[in-house]
Amino acid sequence: MPYRAIEVPREGERLMGARTNWRGWLGAALCAACVLLGGLAEAQAPSGSPPDARALLLSMAEFLGKTQQLSVTVHTAYDAIQRSGQKVEWNEVRTLALSRPSRLRMEVEKSNGARSLVVFDGKEISAYDEAGRVYAQAPQAGGIDEALVHFVRDLRMRMPLAALLLSRARTDLDRRVQSVEYVEKTGILGAVGHHLVGRTDTVDFQVWIADGDHPLPQRIVLTYPGAPGQPQFRAQFAAWNLAPELSDSLFTFTPPADASRIPFAAALAQYGRATTPATAKKGGKQ
Amino acid sequence: MRSRFWSACCSVVFALALLGVISDDAGAQRGRAGGGRGGGGGQGGGLSREGPAANGGLSSSAGAGSGQGAQARGENQAARQQSAAGAQASRQQYASGAQASRQEAYDDQHWDQGKGLAIAATGAAVAGTVAATTAATAAPPPPAAAQPAQFATAPATPPPPAPAPPCANPTLVPAGGVTYSKCGTTWYTQAYGDGGPVYVKSAPPPGS
């Protein structure tokens, strides 16, 4: 009995040890499984939360605004809603050269072959139409920022996406963009980029921004939801060059000998409104 | 008896003629409508290149009514209600001043919305163009270049012809560095718009 009495605990201890080992191995296996499954799940899911869309957008704007010299070719297209309700897409190619603080050159070729030229030389704003052999000039006060605003707002000339060329593009966008969301990371446009979608108070936009140290726009789509037919403006950027060789002659406008100088139409309209508003209004209805 | 017969015949002929005219007119209207659709909007064969998307701006005047503009109107109404206790004159002055400053701030923030000039090829009449064109061309033009303005790239499409004059055979009158075109009794000058050169109605050249 004493022997048994002595042996029973030994047997019990062995059994207890075996149970403990079994439980230990089971626990270890479960832990390993959890770790493995967790690792697998993490590897399959996108890493973390999506990038901050607004930060990406503003980094693009800041990068563009701080770039002192650049050249780029932009293929643009926009919808024009006809009276029938049909949309017609008009295409243009714009070749831009920019040298801060005050010089800009933009060549424009429309899909019908019409070509025009806009030059900011630091002292004058010049616009030239090749087919009409005419040009208009206005004084340029200030740098590119002031000239762009004057050109678009006061002279009422076309310069699509001019806001991106401002040196204060970041501030301008930050103030005007009401919402922006991250869509996806994609390489569908040829290089890896971030696809964002956002809104100002009157324009919906999408932008694809190149990934990496040079957050340049690859493509931009603007939609005008408040306009009949909700037309779009589309721009595809190509051949970005952040260290172009830009000679002084590139920003010097010398009109051809047979070209005539004409006023900007906005100058006429402003004069008409400022002096004889009643007559101008009446005339405007004709 | 004969007179009744002839009067009846005349009535029938008149009624048939009237019906023919009506049906002809209706057919013409249907035809015009169809032609309009088929013709891309019935704009005389031309398609419009205008529209808010052409400007490529981050703001649009087309959508301003539902956004900031509406908000501005709401604020304006609130401002009017708040100042209702005051004198009517001061209330109106306050409201107009506030509206003006808000509009100015809005325009400043939406500088690229592209209001456009709404000037067609031979578009809106603008008064006082004589002084404006003179002012615009008062500065001596830069010396004529030996070489024309060069484009870096060759055109992908043959260039279009020069813009047509405002009428078939205008009378051209140069004055003060500006060439005026006279069509009948109407004068035009050429100006540079957002889509290129356009003809706008103008006052007669000085001395004419």
What features would you describe in this structure?
The complex is a heterodimer of chains A (286) and B (208). Chain A has 286 residues and is α+β, with helices and mostly antiparallel strands. Chain A contains 6 helices and 12 strands. Chain A has helices at 2-44, 53-66, 144-154, 169-176, 265-275, 277-284; strands spanning 69-81, 87-99, 103-110, 115-120, 124-129, 134-139, 179-186, 193-199, 204-210, 217-223, 232-241, 260-261. In chain A, α2 (53-66) packs antiparallel against α4 and α5 (265-275) packs across α6. Among the domains of chain B are: 70-107; 119-136 and 164-208, no CATH class. Helix content of chain B is 39%, strand content 14%. Chain B has 4 helices and 5 strands, in the order αααβαββββ. Chain B has helices at 2-38, 68-82, 88-109, 129-136; strands at 122-125, 171-175, 178-183, 186-193, 196-202. Chain B has a 5-stranded mixed beta sheet with strand order 1-5-4-3-2, with helices on one face. In chain B, α2 packs antiparallel against α3 (88-109). Chain B is extended and about 80 Å long. The model of chain B is unreliable at 18-44, 65-80, 118-135 and 138-148 (pLDDT under 50). The chains are: A alpha+beta (286), B alpha+beta (208). Chains A and B meet through β1, β2, β4, β5 and β6 of A and α4, β4 and β5 of B.
State the end-to-end CA separation of chain B. 73 Å
Strand fraction of chain A: 25-35%
3D shape of chain B: extended
Kindly report the average pLDDT value of chain A.
85
The radius of gyration computed from the alpha-carbon positions of chain B, rounded to a whole number of angstroms, is 28 Å
For this structure, what is the CATH class of chain A? Mainly Beta
Largest interface: A-B, 90 and 90 residues
Structural class of chain A: alpha+beta
Categorize the overall geometry of chain A.
Answer: elongated
Give, in spatial order, the strands making up the sheet with the most strands of chain B.
1-5-4-3-2
- Architecture of chain A, CATH level 2? Clam
**Total number of β-strand segments of chain A?**
12
CATH-assigned fold name of chain A: outer membrane lipoprotein receptor (LolB), chain A
Please tally the helical runs of chain B, counting DSSP H or I stretches of 4 or more residues: 4
